[in-house]
């Protein structure tokens, strides 16, 4: 193969076949994908969760991951938030002519590694190559599907008054990492993305505690926007306690310098869990036993004080509304 992506690789002819066999099947291959059919043959039973997403992150490589691992983690997490075991994903690539083949191989290699670690198989895919300048290096579209294992299914409209609001770890790591890498900023302390697949931890959680009302990963728009979506859908109020919010000192410092609010920065390896207060300690015990949840804590509760609103109880004891993010604080973070 050439050392750069050529338009020929999107032609559907021999060049396309070489790209598929020498790169994609090498790192993503399995019994189903290797058949190279136009669609995958899958066996489904009962309720399934299905999600689709597109990834356009800039830069495509960043501390803690790249666009390939991010695509797998993000899709796996979206399916898992439905109380499901992710089983299969599809991947479609839009490649810019001239993209270095070494970069593409690093991305596909990391996708294969992320998929194996998450326990999912890539069962179908597509590749398109467009002329230079028609796309920025590489965009990836994915779809994930999995078996729902709980009833009722966790849902953003299911939060109830008296519920505890739990968070699996620190806020803002991914968003600040992307901005820092994009702008060439040198933070005094190391900052890297929290990009990770959460499905194994989530399966343990919902199997031991089936009464989980809401699971959600606070990606674009961060914690504040995600909680606003939940309170509006559930017609409840969320009261967050500022002193309980876990934010790394280096992230807080970077945000202070740049004028950003970490409550609105994206995360790619954290999740919110809303469930009855009576089950909160058990849920935290399960979460903290996993490396991806060792920093889990309760950050607030669900009340009926101001339905549809998110209220932050400040360190000084005052209260302020956290509104939904207006516009894009930081574009192309996933």
UniProtKB/TrEMBL annotation:
Residues 160-311 form the PurM-like C-terminal domain. It comes from the Bacteria. Residues 38-146 form the PurM-like N-terminal domain. Pfam families: AIRS, AIRS_C. CDD domains: HypE. One of its GO terms (biological process) is protein maturation. Belongs to the HypE family. This is Hydrogenase expression/formation protein hypE. It comes from Pseudodesulfovibrio piezophilus (strain DSM 21447 / JCM 15486 / C1TLV30) (Desulfovibrio piezophilus). The gene is hypE.
């Amino acid at each position: 193969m050439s050392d750069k992506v050529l338009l020929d690789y999107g032609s559907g002819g021999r060049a396309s076949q070489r790209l598929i066999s020498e790169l994609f099947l090498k790192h993503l291959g399995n019994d189903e994908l290797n058949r190279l059919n136009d669609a995958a043959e899958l066996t489904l039973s009962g309720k399934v969760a299905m999600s689709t997403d597109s990834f356009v992150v800039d830069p495509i490589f960043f501390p803690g991951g790249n666009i390939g691992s991010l695509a797998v983690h993000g899709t796996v997490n979206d399916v898992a938030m439905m109380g499901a075991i992710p089983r299969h994903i599809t991947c479609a690539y839009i490649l810019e002519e001239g993209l270095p083949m070494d970069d593409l191989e690093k991305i596909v290699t990391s996708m294969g590694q992320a998929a194996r670690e998450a326990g999912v198989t890539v069962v179908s895919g597509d590749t398109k190559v467009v002329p230079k300048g028609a796309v920025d290096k590489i965009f990836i579209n994915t779809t994930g599907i999995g078996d729902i294992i709980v009833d009722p299914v966790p849902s953003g409209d299911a939060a109830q008054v008296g519920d505890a609001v739990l968070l699996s770890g620190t806020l803002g790591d991914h968003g600040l990492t992307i901005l820092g890498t994009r702008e060439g900023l040198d933070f005094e302390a190391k900052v890297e993305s929290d990009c990770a697949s959460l499905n194994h931890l989530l399966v343990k959680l919902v199997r031991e505690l089936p009464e989980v009302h809401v699971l959600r990963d606070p990606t674009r728009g961060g914690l504040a926007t995600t909680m606003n979506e939940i309170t509006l859908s559930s017609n409840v109020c969320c009261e967050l306690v500022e002193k309980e919010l876990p934010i790394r000192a280096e992230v807080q410092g970077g945000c202070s310098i740049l004028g950003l609010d970490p409550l609105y920065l994206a995360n790619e390896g954290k999740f919110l869990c809303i469930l009855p207060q009576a089950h909160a300690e058990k849920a935290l015990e399960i979460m903290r036993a996993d490396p991806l949840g060792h920093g889990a804590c309760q950050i607030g509760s669900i009340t009926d004080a101001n339905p549809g609103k998110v209220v932050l109880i400040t360190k000084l004891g005052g209260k302020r509304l956290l509104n939904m993010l207006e516009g894009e604080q930081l574009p192309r973070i996933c």
